[in-house]
Amino acid sequence: MLTPEQLAALRRDIVVNAQLGGRDLTMHSTWGLFSPREIDEGTRLLLAHLEVRPTDDCFDLGCGYGAIGLAMATLAPRGQTLMVDKDFVAVDYANRNVKLNQLENARAQLSNGFDQVDPELQFDLIASNIPAKVGKELLALLLHDARARLRPGGRLYLVTINGLRQYMKRNLTEVFGNYDKLKQGAHYTVAFAERAQRGGGSAADV
Q1: Labelling 118: which of 62, 79, 112, 136 has CA 20 to 30 A away?
Q2: Is the dihedral of CA 181, 183, 184, 187 positive or negative?
Q3: CA dihedral 111, 97, 78, 83 (to 10 degrees)
Q4: Which residues contact 31 (CB under 8 A, 6 or more apart)?
């Protein structure tokens, strides 16, 4: 049986300090969110290979408490970064972390994938740490929706467990017409795809 003091300690926010986007950031998280005590291995691998331009409009798909989105907002100060998650607790913490780090070009909202995102919004860069158990049906929707939301020349960066590597290669090639494996680590792989400039395309254009 836990004491009242131990229960109170579990209820307190967890504080994560990390250098993201070349800046020291402080983030709060809580139990029940993904990797609440530290930036996980997959996210770190993704961020190490993410190329962000200062004017990019960025999208963090499945943001958790906001590590990827905050990094992108830091690296793209003249763009806007939108973070989404289907967990209202994650969205709440992501927005709190935006304020905590005084990032005026980022916000988080509740959405299952892209379904609650303003249909007029388009992005230069979409990044996501894809959960291993997301399911192939939802993953197919996310890839097609990501391509539709990217501007021509827009880039998609994904990190997945190595077991999904061939699946991602096959499906990104089908949806985007291209695929690049940026890095394969011990447990995770970073994949990249680009939406063709106007005039090029993939099967999704037909």
Answers
A1: 136
A2: negative
A3: -10
A4: 10, 14
DSSP 31: B
Q: Taking the model in full, what pTM does it have?
A: 0.93
Longest dimension (CA), the chain: 65
- Please give the average per-residue pLDDT across 17-41, as a whole number: 95
- Please, which residues have CB within 8 angstroms of residue 5's CB and are 6 or more apart in sequence? none
Contacts of 126 (CB under 8 A, 6+ apart): 58, 59, 61, 146, 149, 150, 154, 155, 156, 157
DSSP state of 50: -
Condensed to tens digits (0 to 9), the pLDDT of residues 81-91 reads: 999 999 999 99
Spatial distance between the Cα atoms of 34 and 48, rounded to a whole number of angstroms:
19
Query: How do beta strands 150-161 and 188-194 pair?
Result: antiparallel
Give the model confidence (pLDDT) of 125-165 as tens digits. 999 999 878 888 899 999 999 999 999 999 999 999 999 99
Alpha carbon of 119 to those of 5, 123, 125, 134: distances in Å?
A: 47, 11, 16, 23
1 CA to centre of own chain: 38
What pLDDT, in 10s, does the model give residues 44-101? 999 999 999 999 999 999 999 999 999 999 999 999 999 999 999 999 999 999 999 9
Are 88 and 112 spatial neighbours (Cβ–Cβ below 8 Å)? no
Structural contact between residues 147 and 195, judged by C-beta atoms closer than 8 angstroms: yes
